[in-house]
Amino acid sequence: MGLFQKIKNMFKSDAEEKNLNQTNSLDESDIDPLVNDSDQETEDRLDVVDEQIDSSNENDTTEEKNIIVSSDSKKVDSLDNEKKGFFFKKKDKKEEEKKSVKVYEKGLSKSRQGFVSRLANLTNKYSKITDEYFDELEEILIMADIGVNTVMDFMDRLRDRVQKEHISDPALLKEIIVDELFIIYVNDEVLSNKIEFREDGPTVILFVGVNGVGKTTTIGKLAHKFHDEGKKVLLVGADTFRAGAVEQLKEWSQKVDVGFYGKEESDPASVVYDGIELAKKESYDVVLVDTAGRLQNKVNLMKELEKINKVIDGLVDGGASETLLVIDATTGQNGVSQAKAFKEITNITGIVLTKLDGTAKGGIVLAIKEEVGLPVKYIGLGETKDDLQVFDIEKYIYGLFKDMM
Ligand SMILES: Nc1nc2c(ncn2[C@@H]2O[C@H](COP(=O)(O)OP(=O)(O)OP(=O)(O)O)[C@@H](O)[C@H]2O)c(=O)[nH]1
Ligand SMILES: [Mg+2]
Question: What is the pTM assigned to this prediction?
Answer without folding.
Answer: 0.79
